Amino acid sequence: MSSTPVLPDPSTEPPAFADLGLRSELLAALSALGYEEPTPIQREAIGPLLAGRDLLGQAATGTGKTAAFALPLLQRMPDERPTGDPVALVLVPTRELAVQVSEAFHRYGKDLGARVLPIYGGQPIGRQLRALDNGVDVVVATPGRALDHIARGTLRLGNLATVVLDEADEMLDMGFAEDIEAILEHTPEQRQTVLFSATMPSRIDGMARAHLTDPVRILIAREQPVAGEAPRVRQSAYLVARAHKPAALGRVLDVESPTAAIVFCRSREEVDRLTETMNGRGYRAEALHGGMSQEQRDRVMGRLRGGTADLLVATDVAARGLDVEQLSHVVNYDVPSAPESYVHRIGRVGRAGREGVAITLAEPREHRMLKTIERVTGQRITIDKIPTVADLRTRRLELTQAALRESLLEDDLDPFRVIVETLSDEFDLMEVALAAVKLAHEATLPGAEEAAEEIPQVAVRAPRESRPGADARGGDRRPARPRSNGTTQVFIGLGRRAGVRPQDLVGAITGETGIRGRDIGSIEIADRFSLVEVPIAVADEVIAGLRGSTIKGRKATVRRDRDDRP
Ligand code: AMP
Asked: Is the C-beta atom of 66 inside 6 A of ligand 1?
């Protein structure tokens, strides 16, 4: 049975962004970003935050928590902001998150003219001083650097309407508790306080009791099983850096060879972009999202059923109620924003006793959300290594062998007998067979292996409990210590702005040293710098090698990562 998805019925559908009371500039920004509907945390948090309530939310990265606090905060920003002192302060545990959260604020608040500034320990203080001096509306800071600026008198908090403590459990684990207390002492008593944390240990509870007033409590990662039994499908996940996701998706499709697959994205924009990318890579992909008319959707579904398309790239809204017999694979291009959404997505396959496969491409940061989904669904998601080019080759040979076996079992080979007999006068039978296999093999996916690129494997970050600095004071001013898993981070003073991609760093390191790609751990690329995790034993060799070479044609500062960088 198969049916075409219909437009959502407004009487039963969850609220849209417009129903949450957001102003038109923000709705326009969300629509331009292709967000089709609020995630569960946004649905629950935006209303109370707009009303000025304090909030205690349990939510991990990937749930959409940033927009959940950023949108109300931008809306509450007064139109006239004469002093230039910030009206909102967001405290985050890491530089990386400071940059991400400010970028999110920029994207949502462009039309409101919001001035947003990330401040963190890795950046020259002079630039921050100038920016603060020019006036800002929202400061996103790591606690250590925020406190430095408060002490210098360059960050004045008297005008604050809202303070957000984001990833509060991480901040406590990194030893920021005292810094946070000290910062809060400089804020007005009448402020709104928002605390988000992926876990709720008693220390977070204590912090909430001390600093939040009658907060709304939101728990997104509910521990009870979700309604309706999750279908029995093979579930796995690959950890992959954002930049390598299209290649990883291609690799997964090549290795899995699905009959037809649906790939879920978070936004319309991503659906369109990915459809184009995958078509460019030789897959027959069709987009399906809420911005399309019923007629357009019908055409897409027709092409999928008729076999002229084999990849459907869709948003959750568009795929609601979709039932297509041919679908064998569901791919989550991003980790879904809630376990319910995961269950809903994988329910597109594995129906009526059919076999189904669900694959999730997760960024290393989203690892915890996967754990939450496992806990809630009570089903295991195995984390696999992204198939290498060698794996692809092996798998393709297996497929060719299976096809040949099938052909041998069928009895329609006679027309070709004359060829083999003729050739066997001249060549050994084995040679003839080998040449035939080669031709058959090459006809399946011409050029697949030659074009295949190696996709860097990324390591799961060490669990918080064993991360260095746990419970040590000082946070972003503490000296770097070796990580407990035998690795350390190397700082490289070039990042996204210089066009640096993970493969450039891997290439530079493996090219300059005796270290192999698989010994390199997680790679973080920020706007202006990158951090690469390497075994402690070879860190000095890596540093010396990189100092002696160029990356993207440029010389870079290279050293062991210290959080008290100038
Ligand atoms: P976060 O959990 O805040 O780190 O957000 C995870 C990702 O989801 C970010 O890339 C956001 O841009 C994206 N996102 C947040 N809310 C939505 C939404 N309602 N629809 C689509 N994407 C979203």
From this structure: yes
